[in-house]
Specification:
Largest sheet: 6 strands, parallel
CATH topology of the largest domain: Rossmann fold
Distance between the termini: 90 Å
Order of helices and strands: HHHHEHEEHEHHEHEEHEHEHEHEEHHH
Structural class: alpha/beta
Length: about 425
Amino acid sequence: MRVTKKSEITPSLVAKKVVGRLKRYTSKIWRKVFSERIYGYILIYLFYNNSKILWREKKRIYENDKINFLDSANRILIIFSKRHFDPLADSKHRPLSASSVANWARNIYQLCKERNKEIVYIDQHEDYQNLGKFDLIISIVCRNFIKYAKDNQQAKKVLFLVNSHPLYRLAATIKQAVYYRKKLPYSEFISPILFLKSNLMADKHILVGNQFVKNSYLKYGIPEKKIKLINGGTNWENLVPKRELYPFGKIRICYVASDMGIRKGLFRVMELWEQLNQSYNNKIELFMLGGTSSFSKEIKKFTEKYNNVKCWGWVDSTDIIYKTILQSSQIMLNLPVEEGQVGCGLEGMACGCIPVFTEETGIPIIDSMQGILIKAGSFDAGMVAQNMIKLMNNQQLMETMSLAAREYIVQNHNWESFRNNLIGSL
């Protein structure tokens, strides 16, 4: 029989064991970082949240915040998405032509054209050569903006922003993913680097949203003088309530998102629906519209669990199905953790849908008058369900709120107001 000799405990042996355990622990952490995207995102967020780029931004002085760049410009470069709007191939039947991005780009282009400006309109991704010099660049956040901003140092540069600050967006989405124990899909991640670089070159930001969205930029060091806050518009003339389409004996609720996922509040909707079905199962139905690629398994499981839920998948806003569902719904859910100003929310309200929105939608409705508004960061499925049940039990209140929601859109989100605000902001 072999006898093992017991090792004598010495300081050097203890040190070796401690170092070995630290190596194994560190290796385990790094495997987590590379195998789980969410941990990598947290590191990116922590790094860029404390970067000197933000400090540099705070030190800049803006003397031109009251100067209108459009009046003094002769040659203008507009950088948007040709997939949404192309001035040489614009058609109302073209997919995505009725989206918020398309309508913003279209109105900016027409506004410049009406003032007899020389306009060059390019796509955010395509590579172009020899475009010449410009007096003004109007662009969404993209690599082409950085490229042509460098080539046109003398030009005034305006960034058109359609979301909250990327660092806020990253933090809010990570927090939501951790809360619901979901992996964060790559499609929901937008690198803050592109905005932080673009921000240093921009003279102005035109931000479509509400005060909450604006505050997300102020929080991360963007000077208030640099931000011009405006409301988006919607085609409310073509989106009218049709109460004859309401389902008999039921209240139809719709949830619309470009891509149903963590950022757009998919799991908040699921949690809320579970609460509503405990006491209102036979009186309500949910229609879901939006891309399902990121969480197709979860959505399928959800629709199979509840017989009063139907998922239509992605439906373009030019499709008659999209319009019909909005017009046949009494309530619209929009519960994102981050947005700019939700276009489908404006369209739903134009159709008379009562909004149940989080503050992060970027639509500044008045709570209990034009809908149910949930303060940012305070979503509670049980409390929201209680408020919705009180609303649905009061037919007169539903009628009043429906009319108020549409009236708010007509008065505040028409394209004439958008263009007037845009002129003042440029």
